[in-house]
Specification:
The chain is of the alpha+beta class and 188 residues long. Helices cover 53% and strands 9% of the residues.
C-alpha cells in the first residue's frame, strides 16, 4: 500500500462534489503525487450526495478558478458503476485521467454519473475503449479490487470523503490537501 511507502493516498467517490474540488487541486497541492484510491463512500458510511451545501461548493469552485458547477438533474447519483470503472482505470494506469474526466462530466457538464453513457464518455476522454471498460467492470477481480479499497479505507479509519492518508495519519474533508501538504512539506 502506498501509504506505507510514504506516498500519500487520496480516497474519493466520484459522486462527491467535495471530492471533485479536492481532485482538481491534489496533484498540484501536494509536494508528491498521491495514489488515487476510488472507494464507495456509502460503503464507508460517508455521506455522499445529499445534503450538500450547493452554494458552498459553487463558491469554492469559483475560488479554485474551476468552471461553474452545473448540478446533474438526477441527484444524488448512483456511482457504483462509475466507481467500478475508476477501479478498472486505476488498474490500467488511467485513474487520474478517468476520474478527472468523470468529475468534470458530473460537476462541470451536469451529467449523471449513474448514466452509463456519461461514464463511457469519461472513459473515452481518458483513452479507454468502451468495450474494454464494459468487459473490465464485469470481472470479479475489478469488483474485488473496489471492495478491497473500501476495506483499506476502513482499516485506515476513514469515515468521510475526501480523505488523504499519509502514513498512519488521515486528513478528511475538503481542506485535506492543505493539512497533508503541511505534513509532507515538514517531512521534506
Amino acid at each position: 500500500m502506498a501509504a506505507d511507502s510514504g506516498q500519500p493516498v487520496f480516497y474519493y467517490d466520484l459522486g462527491s462534489p467535495e471530492c471533485y474540488l479536492v481532485a482538481e487541486t491534489v496533484m498540484t497541492g501536494l509536494p508528491v503525487a498521491p495514489e488515487w484510491e476510488p472507494v464507495l463512500g456509502r460503503s464507508l458510511g460517508a455521506a455522499i450526495g445529499d445534503p450538500v451545501d450547493r452554494a458552498l461548493i459553487e463558491r469554492r469552485a469559483v475560488e479554485l478558478e474551476l468552471q461553474a458547477v452545473r448540478w446533474p438533474r438526477t441527484w444524488p447519483p448512483d456511482t457504483r458503476e462509475a466507481m467500478l470503472v475508476a477501479t478498472f482505470a486505476k488498474r490500467a494506469g488511467r485513474a487520474v485521467a478517468f476520474s478527472l474526466a468523470a468529475f468534470r462530466q458530473a460537476f462541470a457538464a451536469g451529467r449523471d454519473l449513474g448514466d452509463r453513457d456519461t461514464v463511457l464518455l469519461a472513459g473515452a476522454a481518458s483513452e479507454m475503449h468502451p468495450a474494454a471498460i464494459l468487459k473490465g467492470i464485469a470481472t470479479r477481480s475489478v469488483r474485488d479490487a473496489l471492495d478491497a479499497a473500501v476495506q483499506r479505507a476502513r482499516a485506515a479509519r476513514i469515515h468521510s470523503l475526501p480523505a488523504i492518508q499519509v502514513g498512519d495519519l488521515v486528513f478528511e474533508g475538503e481542506r485535506c490537501v492543505e493539512s497533508a501538504a503541511a505534513l509532507l512539506g515538514a517531512a521534506v
